[in-house]
Amino acid sequence: MLGNNSLSDKEITTVILDNHKLSATSLTNLILESTNNQLRSDCLDVLRKTLDHQKQIFDVMSQKGWYKVNTASQQDLSTAQQMINNITSGMTM
After folding, report:
1. Domains of the chain, residue spans
2. 3-state secondary structure of 68
3. Among 68, 67, 85, 65, which Cα is nearest to 77's?
């Protein structure tokens, strides 16, 4: 009998989302520090899947009103996109 000690769906989903965030961070660090190309490739595949799962979990939480975010203005989005463009253009070799 679970009684009053059972976790809500929101609490369980929050834990799962947090674990995906931690996994993404750990995988990113592993990829950045790995010298083995096959390991890097395998970890990149797992990272992509982790990010996809995180987005799915986030979408469910957002739809249920469990994860609220502020809506960015068009100006904020344009500024962020310009920053990303500047970073990526500086990364070309």
Report:
1. 8-90
2. coil
3. 85
